[in-house]
Design goal:
By secondary structure, this protein is mainly α. It has 33 helices and 5 strands. Helix 12 crosses helix 13. The two termini are 64 Å apart.
Amino acid sequence: MNNLYNNDLPITDVTDDKLDREEFAKNLAKAVTNLPTYESSFTIGLIGEWGSGKTSILNLFEKNINSDKIILIKFNPWNFTEMNNLFDSFFNTLIGNLKKRKQYDKIIGLLKKYKNELLIPIYALETIGPLILGIPYVPTLYKFIMSLENNIKKASSEELLEDKKEKLNKLLSKLDKKIVIIIDDIDRLTSKEVQQIFQIVKSLANFSNITYILSFDKNHIYNSLNAHQFLGSENDKYNNVEEFINKIIQIPINIPSIRENHLKEIFKEKISDTFNYYSKNADKEIYKIINYILPYVNNIRDLNRYINLLTFNLSIIYDEIDVYDLSLLTAIQLFDNDLYKTIKNNKKLFIPYINNNEDKEKLSKILKNTSKTTNLILKELFPTIDENKIHLNRNNNRRITYYTYFDTYFTYNLDSTCISKKELDEILKIRNNTEVNDKIKELYKLGKLDSFLDELPYNIGKINNNLICGLLSINDYITEYDILGTYIGKIIYIIRQFIENNNSKECFKIIKNRIQYNNSILFDLDIIIMLKNSKLYSYKQICELKDISLKKSLKKLSEQSIPKKELPSFLHNTIHLDLSKECFQIVDDNSDEELIYKLHAFIHKERNSEKVEKNDFNKMKDYFDISFIDKKLKKIKKENEKIYEENKEIFNLFNENYPEENIT
């Protein structure tokens, strides 16, 4: 079965060439070899849409290059993640390839000097500049540094770089071989990186006797160079980009779209392997599948993605469904995923016997918003959307149109973490608290809790008090708030819907009871904030819940049992509920440990960032005297080395923002 998957890698051998690209690659290699490039550089653009086979052509081109006449260098900028090193990486790649040939030592030495003098001002701008910008009140100093950098760059380029570049050109023009540099995957780069590549080719490394072959998707390059109005105003930038590329690319080679007959033959070959493995009626169904799906397919990459997804889906449920139906549905899943989700969530619109006008109207709107190709597939899958009767020849009881099998096409398709309708119905029938809790815990372990919570809003009328209690108890076994946070929003929404549709007094008792015993104080506060904002309960009832939560909060704070990383969120929630003054009060006799612990709520770095959360730092003034904290921290640093070492980041972040006038 593994042989049915397609790795979507570019071809590397002519035996894999199914699109007759070998002859083109040979001609390209011959033309590049004969180009007159000894007096200057030359740039060829290999231009094609995403998935058109640019890299495959380059691989075949490489096979046809005569190494006696050409030094072939491949530079893939996508491999270098820190793009401030892209210039450095390019020159290192060039030098590294020439190092393999001892007769080029003089060129290598001169290239190294050229690179070093070129990159000093670039790194000065990219490294020093941002550091200076981060220091308050230094615009004059920054202008001075920028002026100095410009002077260095000017002196380097005018007095040194041009001389070295001229010497390099003379040496390169006398080489016994031509240098060809392939730069692929340009259309995977960011706007800044694309600009850097063109800067290398056009200006920094436009040496004699070098031919560049740039491979890219033209539309992506247009968007990248147009970013931030890189070239001209909004009205004329498209023309500017066209002119800019034309100045760099001397020979643009457009890769033509793959002919339909080629795609059809490859499609037939690939899907035949899949169908012969899974279906008994392969010969009868393959041509129908191809005709329905081919309009979606623009290139080999699209085809491989479809075959891979179909193979994966079939590997899971091929013995539970009809292979032909799943093949058509998979095309919708891949090429029109929004419609796929619509079908999944609107079972009653697509299965047989649509009897009411409202459903017909909804279905009509869906069909109007789909393409002709998709409409044909939908009518093949669901004949009743065309007429109110079942086609007699569709008598396989595993087809998607059969009520009991419809969900199977989606429940286990691709995502094994989806909950089935049968599982959902069984849980909704449970009336025992312990059993409900155990079942929800099991769903969490299986990765199905998310899917379960997604389904509950559609079954609000079937939800009972035991299930609500179970949802409010999930923090008994999900102890990390980071993980719990992915479910809290959905649980709160379900609880709110449940309260609006049921006995609110009974539900209040459940919520009050769970808040008394919940492990996660943040979960409690989230629930109370929702109830407060929704006004589902009276002010008195909300105050009752707040009192319970405040007592728990004070106890957990005194025990320092709330994880430090959760304290910022805890601070925000207590502010929202007017509980923060009581929770974060700091007095003279607070212990050093308690002081440092509470400071974690105010002084911290944003997640995935190096900057301090200044807003939280500013909130400190609302709770205590900043100068008092400064004195306490200085005293702790002097007298309690252990606490200082364990919390050095807090001390450093505080000092960065102190004295008080720096707290804006």
